[in-house]
Design a protein that fits this description.
heterodimer; A: alpha+beta; elongated; B: mainly alpha; Rna Polymerase Sigma Factor, Chain: A; about 0% strand
């Protein structure tokens, strides 16, 4: 039997292109011509007929047909017996599954058969053991098999189970550090200009942007107050008590900025998105503090002394400060103005909370 | 994964496939992200070359996308995808008979002049780590010596954990064939490991 390698390779390529659905009309015709001229397929008229149907998409299971053709083409020795087997099976109409048939044919010929054509009694038993390892036997089958299990069979099942585990671990080890992000490459190949595009998202994003812009609109004084509220939550260096009016806030700001920038939180808040989120959160906190905190404008008699508020009512008074119980602090009048800066800060957790109102030329109130 | 999870997954896959078929190509991203690692692991097992496996995995997804209109919605998307991926891997093996296993092995363990395994990094317990990696290298070497068909069936079962029915769907053969083929593949792998030990 002659074995024409170039023709074989070409057939191989063409068959794969058909399987992949990428064969052109000319390639399909070329494949059929080569198949008709191939000695090993000469007598397999049925197979060539089905190949013709498969090539032109007239049958859905064209992979089976191609599998058969490849099996026939890759056989070298003992082909006649295999061909007889194949013909016999095809004629008898029993070959419902062509890959099963290919296995059986290959079992007679290949040096490394996928299956044994006539498995021994022992193979049949072990085949069941293999299925039992996979949990593929019914309860009745398992009971039937149990009676035949000895130490050798149990050991074999253990060996196979170990093999499977080792294989999983080996492959997991091989791919564990792989960062797989194939989507961008796939998207490009399937014609998507922007792999991150989400259909229908843009109108939603636009509405969201508008709503946020409206909601997050702040006056200058609100922004200042918000900054102060943020700073209040940060660890600050304790300032000396004998400070100049207006300077304390500046010093605290400088020190706290350094501390803040060097802290993990500072790095976190270096993100513009987070700055916005923090600003919004702080605004809410400040509003609660100023407008809603019952400790400011109403007595909380059952928790005396829990928090302290330091009030220095005279601008420029850098001397003794009077610490009042929080229950005694009251907001008698609340006004708003654009040119007033309000800062709220606390030296450390549990320390008195300072409220500084800087009215510019008119001085500051701490 | 139990059967109810699989059923849910299949329903979700089907919804994504339908969305893609209806013209929303971006829905395909969900399928790529869900299966890329699994397909990649299978192909690595087949071809033993990470770079080639990566390319083949991408190719499998592209091919599946282009042939999505042929996919039968009542079937499992992943068995169909695995079939495409495995066929690509087998095709690749046939076209490139010279394997580059050494490149692959470097990631696991590299053999020095003395034939011993050396490692790029040392774990907390070096001797155990060495033993584990030796074992990994050995089993993958043994796997590499199997025929592509045996390799394919053993990977689908042991790595991907497909049932016989799912393997039968993937390989388009009968469940009985899966049972016998898998048994012989296991025996062959066992034999290879014994030979290596000897």
């Amino acid at each position: 039997m002659s074995h024409n390698e170039p023709v074989m390779e070409r057939l191989d390529v063409l068959l794969m292109r058909v399987v992949d659905g990428e064969a052109s009309e000319a390639e399909r015709l070329e494949l059929l011509d080569l198949a008709d001229a191939e000695p090993r397929l000469a007598e397999l008229r049925d197979l060539r007929g089905r190949l013709r149907q498969a090539v032109f998409g007239q049958v859905s299971e064209h992979l089976d047909v191609v599998g058969e053709v490849l099996s026939a083409l890759t056989l070298v020795d003992g082909w006649e017996e295999a061909a007889d087997e194949l013909r016999s099976e095809l004629r008898s109409g029993l070959a419902e599954d062509s890959l099963d048939l290919a296995d059986r044919v290959m079992a007679q010929l290949s040096a490394e058969p996928l299956i044994q054509e006539q498995p021994s009694e022992r193979d049949l038993l072990e085949m069941q053991l293999s299925a039992m390892v996979d949990g593929e036997l019914s309860a009745a089958e398992r009971v039937g098999l149990a009676a035949r299990l000895g130490p050798a069979q149990l050991n074999l099942m253990t060996v196979w189970a170990d093999q499977g585990r080792q294989l999983r671990e080996g492959l997991a080890e091989a791919v564990k550090h792989e960062e797989l992000t194939l989507w961008a490459g796939v998207a490009e190949q399937i014609g998507l200009a922007d792999p991150e595009h989400v259909p229908g998202w843009e109108p939603v994003a636009q509405a969201l942007r508008e709503a946020l812009a409206e909601y997050a609109q702040l006056t200058a004084s609100q922004e200042v107050a918000m900054t102060a509220a943020i700073m209040n939550g940060l660890p600050l260096v304790e300032p000396a008590l004998d400070f100049e009016p207006g300077s304390m806030a500046a010093d605290a700001d400088t020190e706290s900025e350094d501390a803040f920038e060097n802290s993990g939180l500072g790095r976190l808040f270096s993100s513009p998105g987070l700055q916005w989120a923090a600003a919004l959160a702080a605004g809410v906190l400040l509003a609660l503090f100023v407008f809603g905190n019952p400790q400011v404008d109403s007595p909380v008699a059952d928790q005396p002394g829990q928090d302290r508020v330091a009030l220095v009512t005279e601008p420029g008074d850098t001397g003794a400060m009077e610490f009042l119980e929080v229950n005694d602090a009251e907001v008698e009048e609340l006004e708003s103005a654009d040119d007033v800066m309000v800062q709220v800060f606390q030296i450390e957790d549990g320390a008195p909370m300072f409220l500084m109102i800087d009215e510019g030329d008119e001085g500051a109130t701490l | 994964m139990d059967s109810s999870d699989r059923t849910k997954q299949q329903a979700h896959d089907r919804a994504l496939v339908e969305a893609v078929l209806a013209g929303d190509a971006t829905a395909y991203r969900g399928l790529v992200e869900r299966y890329q690692r699994r397909v990649y692991a299978l192909i690595v097992g087949m071809v033993r070359d990470r770079e080639e496996a990566r390319d083949l995995t991408q190719e499998a997804f592209i091919k599946a996308y282009r042939n999505l209109d042929r996919f039968r919605l009542e079937s499992s998307f992943y068995t169909w995808l695995y079939r495409i991926a495995m066929n690509l891997a087998i095709d690749h093996l046939r076209k490139h008979k010279k394997r580059r296993a050494s490149e692959f092995d470097e990631g696991i363990a590299s053999k020095g002049d003395d034939g011993e395994l050396h490692h790029g990094h040392i774990a907390n317990n070096p001797s155990k780590e060495l033993e584990r990696k030796q074992l990994s290298g050995r089993i993958l070497d043994a796997l590499d010596k199997l025929s592509p068909e045996h390799k394919r069936i053993i990977l689908l079962r042991e790595v991907e954990g497909l049932s016989y029915k799912e393997i039968a769907d993937t390989l388009e053969c009968a469940e009985g064939t899966v049972m016998s083929r898998l048994f012989y593949a296991r025996k062959k792998l066992q034999q290879q490991l014994s030979d290596e030990r000897a």
